[in-house]
Amino acid sequence: MTERAESSAGAVTYVKIGRYQVGQRIDNFLARYLKGVPRSLVYRILRSGEVRVNKGRVKPSYRLALNDHIRVPPVRAAERALTVAPEPLLARLETSILLEDDDLIVLNKPAGLAVHGGSGLGYGLIEALRQARPHAPLLELVHRLDRDTSGCLLIAKSRGMLNTLHALLRAGAIDKRYIALVVGNWRGGAYEVSAPLTRQAAHERMTVCAQGKQAESRFRPLTHFKNCTLVEVRLGTGRMHQIRVHAAHLGHPIAGDDKYGDYTFNRLLRARRLRRMFLHATSVRFQIPNSGRRYYVMAPLDAQLKCVLQNLA
User: Fold this and answer.
1) Residue 223 pairs with which residues in a beta bridge?
2) What is the pTM (predicted TM-score) of this model?
3) Which spans in 37-119 are helix H?
4) What's the rounded Cα separation, in Å, for the pair 229 and 143?
5) Quick check: is 68 catalytic?
6) Mean pLDDT in residue range 1-12
7) Between residues 82 and 284, which one has the greater pLDDT?
8) Which residue among 36, 101, 123, 276 is least enclosed by CB atoms within 10 Å?
């Protein structure tokens, strides 16, 4: 278990990591420990060195080890304030759950909802879910989806499941598939993209760059419409904005994408009632190594995307 000690009231807190926290990223640990603190503040106190692990600075990606000693600075009540998610959203999240067992939730994430708060957002999906389930021992994002992307999102309810799924992700053993509507008439059949990605200035965009991180996507056409194509995308890696950048790199940007998309085409599709980016995480499939448990979950399209396809047809 985690041990805590305070040097004085309202002052620095020292935390000793127990076995249930081993392997957790320091930023995720702090977000849970400092309940209600925005992610932006968590990253700020990490960057400033106010948080120390074994008397040294660490990056947000640092993974906790058994008996690590963490120095946690005091956080003012005003900084800890977090916007409360509205009750209709909490109810919607509960009805969006596709599968739940003792260790895992698979949720059909709504488009337009960020997976976590910070950067001007008072709350995200994970904060809202924790608000809806205040007595849950642990709720952690296994991976992320862009704010405007809908579909299958994995949320771990136990540390063991979180660590297992992270290992499967690193090994490429989780089959994640998406469907997207892309601009233009797709020529030929399936096409594999292997184009490394890197962040541009201010961390707002990704771009194809020979010195970037490896990124692999496989596109397969499903349905041809006039001037656009519905495709399935299977990821070999999970980089930020990967599908969006690779689709644009192929000359087939995703419909409704306001960052990498085609402005003129996006305007035309608004007449077909497309009010968001047409990218949906349609299914996830994997097997837990030790238990042999198999998971295969599919997320249906929301009413808006179904309506767009009907209008195109």
Assistant:
1) 230
2) 0.75
3) 39-47, 77-80, 87-95
4) 27
5) no
6) 56
7) 284
8) 101
